[in-house]
Design a protein that fits this description.
Elements: E1 2-7, H1 19-28, E2 33-36, H2 45-55, E3 58-66, E4 71-75, H3 87-96, E5 100-103, E6 126-131, H4 137-149, E7 153-157, E8 169-172, H5 179-187, E9 192-195, H6 205-215
Parallel strand pairs: 1-2, 2-3, 5-6, 6-7
Antiparallel strand pairs: 1-8, 3-4, 4-5, 8-9
Helix pairs in contact: 1-2
């Protein structure tokens, strides 16, 4: 099973596409589904449910939460999480919902994790080791090395804020036939990271999204 684990739609403050466009793009690239990771909200979930019925694509309900130390990706959650808390508190709240907690783009020079990542090794479920929107290969390489050194699950996602680069990077669990199997594969550290760095023009997605939202106010 192949899933893009980091996607943004117009429901993120810097996102552009509709949920249907996100799923359609992922489907065209041969993926089985996506993880919904809007910034600090779950407002897109209802639209994604409708889009999922139309496209047949699977959904991991999640969120990208800004903590005091940096961004944390929550997967398999059932209710919204609030931003601005300590990362440790946010991770605990994710686990209370039966979800998985993954540190997003930990070594990105501008959007990286500001806390001492080593202090979180025992409580996180994985690291985003390949972020297709990260323009610096060294940041992804460092994340992969950290994950391997600390025996953490390896996660990949496009972090796309436009529809076309959705699916440029994804996580694969071989032999998984449903989302429970996919989740189990991550916990067993059987995840495979696949994909490529998105075209430079697509890296401007968040900037374009902010402009779009500004004019739509």
């Amino acid at each position: 099973m192949k899933i893009d684990m980091h996607c943004h739609s117009r429901y993120s403050y810097d996102g552009n596409p509709d949920p249907f466009d996100v799923l359609n793009s992922a489907k065209k690239k041969g993926l089985d589904g996506i993880a919904i990771t809007e910034h600090n909200n779950i407002d897109s979930w209802a639209d994604y449910r409708v889009a999922s019925q139309k496209t047949g694509m699977k959904l991991i309900f999640g969120q990208e939460i800004k903590t005091k130390q940096g961004d944390v990706l929550a997967y398999f959650i059932t209710s919204p999480l609030q931003k601005g808390k300590n990362a440790e508190t946010t991770i605990e709240e994710i686990h209370k919902q039966g979800g998985l907690a993954v540190i997003a783009h930990p070594f990105h020079p501008f959007e990286g994790f500001k806390g001492n990542l080593q202090e979180y090794v025992e409580i996180i479920d994985g690291i985003e080791v390949f972020n297709a929107r990260c323009p610096f290969a060294t940041a992804n390489k460092k994340a992969l090395e950290f994950a391997k050194k600390n025996n953490l699950a390896e996660i990949a996602g496009s972090d796309a804020h436009l529809s076309l680069p959705i699916g440029d990077a994804f996580t694969e669990i071989q032999g998984a036939h449903d989302l429970q199997g996919f989740k189990s594969g991550i916990l067993k550290k059987k995840s495979l990271v696949k994909g490529k760095t998105s075209n430079f023009i697509f890296l401007l997605g968040p900037f374009l999204g902010k402009i779009k939202h500004l004019f739509n106010k």
